[in-house]
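Suppose you are handed a protein chain with no further information: no name, no annotation, nothing but its sequence. What can you learn? This example shows the usual starting point.
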Amino acid sequence: MSSHVPDHTHDAHEASHGSVKSYLVGFVLSVILTVIPFWAVMTGAFEKSTLIPLVVILAIVQVVVHLKYFLHLDFSPASRASTFAFLFSALIIVMVVGLSIWILYSANAMMMV
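A reasonable first move is to predict its three-dimensional structure. Written in structure tokens, the prediction is:
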């Protein structure tokens, strides 16, 4: 009976994690995606009807940057399982928070009648 020992070499470890370059790219993108909405809000350069969608869109882009460059989530066959596990967890969290807000809003509306 032979025992199978997984190959945990340095190369396999490096393949699952990002390089310094990818972390720097992610950091620079994160800073840019933070500075732009901060500048837009603090200077009042946009109307409120433009500002809110701008901040929301840049926040979504920043979440994608964090998922790609820092959490290393992608749809390659090697990491597909962890990506789907993350997406399922995110779905459950969004449902719990969203449905809780809906229930509280409905309860408040019924109390005010």
